[in-house]
Structure formats: C-alpha cells, structure tokens
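Quick log. Single chain, no ligands specified.
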Amino acid sequence: MADEKKKLYYSISEVSELTGLKSHILRFWEGEFSILRPRKNRAGNRAYTERDIIIIQRIKKLLYDEKYTIEGAKQRLKSDHERSDSQLTLPFNDDKRRLDEIRKDLIKLRDMIEDL
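-> predicted structure:
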C-alpha cells in the first residue's frame, strides 16, 4: 500500500486485493469485530479507509499467523486498544522532558557565548 497513491476510500474489491482476503470474509469480519465499521456511500457500497485496512491486516495476522480464535482476537484487539489509550500521554511527556533539556542546554550555550 505504501507504493500506491493514497486514497481516502477504498472499495471492498480493492481492499480484498490489497489484503488477499475474499470480500465475504471482510463482510463477515464486520459483523464479528465492532472496531471494523467501514462507511457506506450513497449507493450503499462499503468505503474503507486506510485505518480500516490496517485493522483488517491486524485481524488477519491475529487469526491466520498467530492462530487466535475470533474471540481471542477480539480480546487482543480490545487490550491493545486499551493499552494504547492509557499510553497516549507518555510520548508527549517524554518529548516535553527532552525539549526542556534542550532548552536548558541552549540557554547554557547562549550564556557561554555572551561571556566571551
């Protein structure tokens, strides 16, 4: 997908081709995984976003590669989602801390230059 031109929405046939999954599997997963809810256009056709495709690839990996059951995959997706929600502020805090250190270092450099 990285080599292709990015689109806002993909049809079910495009997603089927991108993921290697049959369209009936994609439709079935929509009923099983509440996190997977592609929009429908005016004609009633599914319109998948890139986020939907990432979720599909994650589900596929859990079911096919890691051999989770559907229930197990649901639980894993839920725990992954909860874990990412609880850690949303951590990168920001780390970035802020690092920026504060850089700021202090720049002030020290400025003071050293002024003393010359």
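The chain has a mean pLDDT of 86.
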